[in-house]
Amino acid sequence: MSLLGAYVPRERAKCTSELETYRAYLEKNVPENAQRTNFEFAFNSFRPFYICMMLYVLVFLLSCFSWLGWSAPLRSAAFWLAVLTLILNTGAFIGRMYLMDRWAVFVTNLYATGVFIGWVITVMALCLEVIFPLGIATAGAGLLGFLTALLSHYLARTGGDTLGMMQAVLDTNFWLATHVTIINIGYGATLLAGGLGFIYLFLAMSTRLIDDEMKKALGTMIYGTVCFAVLFSFTGTVLGGIWADQSWGRFWGWDPKENGALMIVMWNALILHARWCGLVKQTGVATLALVGNMITLWSWIGTNQLGVGLHAYGFNNTLAMIVSILWAVHLVPIAVALLPRGWWRSPAAA
User: Fold this and answer.
1) 242 & 311 share domain
2) For a FRET experiment, which of 14, 94, 148, 170 has its CA 20 to 30 Å from that of 86?
């Protein structure tokens, strides 16, 4: 034991000396890489996206409490806390771009899609909250921001390096900054519309908070978000086809991921068509937006689990289970929305 006790500290001191020598070499010969390494250590220690996830929970709770009392101060606190979370999230994205040396590229892997979609949802929700100061858009930002950050947190814990090397066919800053960014904005807009629809149906079914004014405001918010989603999902899908033509020699190949993107465009267009033709009103649009969430979950995560196509990233039991659970959660309010309106607590939602 005495020999081992003398050996371990000696080897530890040797390793520390070699590490210090290597660090000094980096700082002298490759100062930029040394600085980047130090920043990455600090970035991972700070865990900004995890902090954002916790802040999103507080935003959601403050927004919900604002419907029970002290409405103005709690709603204001939730809004400014969401702004603070957005600033932190934006700074974290800038840090990721610096570490990967890919400026204007927000999304490089499935992990990054979660935190980016949460960021998109927060930006749009805060804009809606400024126009319609009801606390509902902020609540949607808190709820969806937490869920997307939670998904990314799980992927970070199980998927290894979140700043890893990319496949050669994906290694292009132009298409990552255009197609990938725009299609994920479309995902975020569609999910926000569904989130607002979920909040609308929950309040209408279980409370008396939905009056004519709030019903009109929520309907306008969901409708505008769906319009935004159509624009970006369609543009992103077309750009994806152009990228596929350059990389694989065909614009469209009925790949599961391509089909999923097309389904989002078609479903959002169906919602607008039904609204314009008078087939549905505010409650119907909210219900259809929930179905849009299910389709987006399929396109975003579900198609990756099929193990076929050029966009298959490998089957993951937990991700498949998450999609199935979220579908079941969405089916409950969709089914309840089919019940007679006389059973709802908010008469204005009829």
Assistant:
1) yes
2) 170
Per-residue pLDDT tens for 286-320?
999 999 999 999 988 888 777 676 666 656 677 78
Contact of 191 with 103, CB cutoff 8 Å: no
The residue range of the domain holding 52 is 46-349
Tell whether 8 and 72 lie within a shared domain. no
Are residues 39 and 94 located together in one domain of the fold?
A: no
One domain for residues 99 and 35: no
Number of domains present in the structure of the chain: 2
